[in-house]
Amino acid sequence: MMENRTTEFKREYTDNLKYTVIAFANTEGGKIYIGRNDDTTVCGVDNTDEIMLSIGNMLRDSIRPDITMFTDCCVKTMQGKNVIVLTVQRGTARPYYLYSKGIRPEGVYVRQGASSVPASETAILSMIKETSGERYEEARALNQNLSFSSTEKHFKTENIIFGEAQMRTLCVINEDGTFSNLALLLSDQCIHTIKAAFFDGSDKMVFRDRKEFSGSVFQQLEETAAYIDHFNRTRAEIVGLVRVEERDYPPEALREALINSVIHRDYALSGPTLVSIFDDRIEILNLGGLVKGISYEDIMLGVSLQRNRHLANVFYRLKLIEAYGTGIRKINGCYADSSVKPKIEITEHAFKITLPNKNYVKEKNLLKVQEPSATYQIKYSEQKETFSLRENVVISLFNDRDTIGRKDVESALQISQATAILILRSMVNKGILVKENAGKYQKYRLGNKRAEE
Hints:
The protein is 35% helix and 21% strand.
């Protein structure tokens, strides 16, 4: 009998025995003989009861998950002396680790020949995948030192208890008592982030602002939504006697798109969710294409196949989602009256939804009018004048008439009376327009004096 991959000799009991126990449990199992020298000679131990008690305490207090069910400790007589034999089976909840170190190389050990050595990160992840299954959210989290201040706040708002029993029911805590990756997503230590950026114009050439949001997925959602809302302008119109206000982006559509990006993201892939804000649209890009077995046509019909079903269940419990598979339909419903619709693009490992700026579309449509008449263009060809978009619309009104009134401007630009007056006054001061007469029926004509120049 010699020391090897499944056999270890210890002259006496020391606390370092735990490294070998963990290594055996993570590899092929093995036996530890306490009372034998490295050269295989038997030295024996006297205080067997005290040592066996210390071994039991060590197994319970120092190693996670619980390894006691895979161990057996007994006393055998060898060469007339008492030897304690600790048998360790290969555990089913690998990786086993030192409670004080966590699931990382300095806390996880494996057997390599006759030695117990730290496991590599690749080996640790392989063990987690082997024993926890394919679902990311169900696997044990590498970080077991987690806090949940943001999540607890959301549960408290809905008057729902977030204690150990509830955490087990929601699969935040696994059967072996360890935190799952779902716990990591809900924790303040979540390693996955959302990056948001505001760009100048309609391309990614110039940044105006950018932020990265971390913390629990709830905190990230709140802060990202607040960031987007800062750029989500409100456009007001006077329709008859009623003031009508509309946001650039429907808040409900933004909410659904953000929540969907969190629930359906593939967290096994590294990289943040990206939110890009342009003048004419918002793009939300998250990692993870469609779940196997579902197509683009399916999701447009409202079919939902959850990639992170436990995370979706948490959102459902907190009333952040009403029913599975309704997000895309709600988003499309917010744009039912818009000429431009949301766009969905899918690749094998990515999902992007684009929400058009409804007010930007309306303003662009207002400018799709006839160009100013050739005669007018000739008159101003040498002035090198640059007009604003609204001024161009007003100028185009003279294509089929000699004079215009305030109401003509209100109708063409879909603006309020006060705004129309300000625009006309500015154009008169610039010499672009000239008042034809005064009073209730005030009319305006093109600035002849400037034209003659």
